[in-house]
Amino acid sequence: MSRVRYLDWLDGQERFLDLQQTLRRIFSWLLIQEDGDVESALEQLEYLGERHGLFRDGYGMDEFRRDLERDRLVSGPRGSQDLTPRGERFIRADSLDQIFGNLQNAPGGDHDIPQAGESGEPLAETRPYAFGDEIHDIDYARSLQNSMRRAGLPGGGDRLSLHEEDLEVRERERFVSAATVLMLDISHSMILYGEDRITPAKRVALALVELIRTRYPKDSLHLVLFGDDAREVPLRELPYAGVGPYHTNTHAGLRLARHILMRKKHSNRQIFMITDGKPTALMERGELYLNPFGLDEKIVRRTLNEAAECRRYKIPITTFMLAREPLLVDFVKTMTETNRGRAYFSSLRDLEQKVFVDFIRNRSRRVR
């Protein structure tokens, strides 16, 4: 006797949406890992789906492709499909959602750098009313107290009345824009020894892009990739950035990041550097000077000099280390002391939380 299983329609819909969301999240990760190669990511997803039974309830690879095309996340003939701009936004948004989903209980606060603007939350502090202040910012309780205090003074009269000098207004947080350069190490060590360090690092960068574009539109974010040399990369090309057979020219990355930030007029400027290797390269008169063994004195000195220059221009460097090699740890500690920045010795698991908590908290509060 055949058995037929009946599911509540809403229950079936919920299961389908959960399945679709799971597949899209895996697909998003694979896209980052495969440097934005849609076909390679789909091939990997199909392999994982068959091996782990991800496709079920009549929903298979063809249906998944169809949904990607319907939502305009990919385009082109099957077999040579590419990401669309909407697909690139999908990766950023998914990265942001997954990372911030893990930050609900993390220490931190809003991205509040008060300086200009009236949209901030009211604070406890008050000050005397000045011409041009908004009416809705008046603290009427404090203002009435001032009026009552004045009425009790000799010559104050016996009737309660508000005078301009009685008025007090609530201070508000002011939001100021910040300029950030994210330095991403693309040297060969980021995929060396079978450990994928570049994918989590790229996912953090993608989430930062989405965070700033959606929540802090006055902020600016620039991406610098550094290997044998350093270059600024348009943010939209981030999903396609891959590791090369490069050494680690930290000096060139810091120098380029500083030059970018010196052109910005933001009140706060900062560098985030994600790396797993000690500096091993230096550009001299157009030639690449290399020493992959130990810590070369010349390379270290030039790199520390650049960190000191960043400090001179009030640009703190926050370094996120993905390795704990003793020589590397010593170098990062010295560089951090020179720059008076921050250093985090992260695992791949907690890199995302540390970067985002630090990004949100690395702010100073002022009231007008």
Bulk shape: flat
Percentage beta strand:
15-25%
**Average pLDDT across residues?**
83
Class from secondary-structure proportions = alpha/beta
Helix percent reads 40-55%
Strand order of the largest sheet: 7-6-5-8-11-12
CATH topology description of the largest domain: Rossmann fold
From the alpha carbons, calculate the radius of gyration and give it in angstroms.
27 Å
Please report the first level of CATH classification, the CATH class of the largest domain. Alpha Beta
Q: Mind telling me the CATH superfamily name of the largest domain?
A: von Willebrand factor, type A domain
Which terms would index this structure?
single chain, 368 residues, alpha/beta, Rossmann fold, 3 domains, 6-stranded mixed beta sheet, two-stranded antiparallel sheet, 10 helices, 16% strand, flat, disordered N terminus, disordered C terminus
